[in-house]
Amino acid sequence: MSGGWKAIGFSLLMLISSLSGCLDSDEEDDEKVIDLVVYYESTSGTIQQSFIGGSQISLTGVSLNFDFARTTSDFDLATFSLEPGDGRSPIIVNADESASIDVDYELHGLFSVILTATDVEENSENMTVVIRIEQHIEWNEQNSAEPDVMQINTEPDNDGPAPKVLQIKSTVENIENLGGLAGSPITITWELTDSNAESKGMKTEQIADGQDAVWDFSLNFPERGVHELSVQLDQSTDQERVNVNHVIDILYEQTESAVNPFPTESGTEGSQTESE
């Protein structure tokens, strides 16, 4: 009987030792070979676009930088890469040549940027950072009897969420008659229509000679697609003309990731976005 208990005790000891070995092995497998550390000063920006007389005169995109310099691996690092989240191919740099990646955006949207480090043994570690890119547009038209229709594209540059707000501030000036005679007042009508030609907002106002009027309008959660902003003149004489200035902002939910700036000597490191 005593021998039987000894045999059972030995078997239990071997089983426990075996399980302990498996747990230790799992813990080793869970240890990350690569410590991915990326710093970035900004996770949002605004594209600036200007038009005069219906023609684009300037477009300034948004450029963001991601610094992998503090990333380490148990082996030599091979590459750093960034997927912009808008369908473009990843931007890849050789780790021996650079630890910094710049990415440019010229279209608005919320983008999930994937940052990856890979070593020479093909181990890799990645993280996702959400980027918010909005757009500001200024449209000017001078001395017009029939202002052009402005097209506003609310379609984001990916399959992500649509904009939260389309903001419009439009100023129309009835140009003062300089011939010595009082000019006529004019009646104007602003209207915003969506891609289905459905009216989303309208305002009519009379403007005296030499005066101006403003339409402030916000469309919440605009449909994806091209909207049209028009200014119609109902004038008492064909000689009346106007100056038009549209200021448009395409805005998104502020759901971008927190910034993680490079630490200063006296500062502390910012929090990293969780790796996936």
Please characterize this protein's 3D structure.
The chain is mainly β. It has one helix and 17 strands. The protein has two domains: 34-133, Sandwich (Immunoglobulin-like), CATH 2.60.40; 135-251, Jelly Rolls (Sandwich). The strands form four sheets. Strands 2, 3, 6, 7, 9, 10, 12, 15 and 17 form a nine-stranded mixed sheet that branches. It has a four-stranded antiparallel sheet with strand order 11-16-13-14, with no helix packed on it. A two-stranded antiparallel sheet has the order 1-5. A hairpin with a 5-residue loop joins strand 13 and strand 14. The longest helix has 29 residues, at 2-30. It is elongated and about 85 Å long. The model is unreliable at 5-29 (pLDDT under 50).
Report low-confidence residues grouped into runs of 5 or more: 5-29
CATH topology group of the largest domain: Jelly Rolls
- What's the main sheet like? 9 strands, mixed
The helix content, as a percent range, equals: 10-25%
Give the CATH architecture of the largest domain: Sandwich
Q: Give me the strand/helix succession.
A: HEEEEEEEEEEEEEEEEE
The overall pLDDT average reads 88
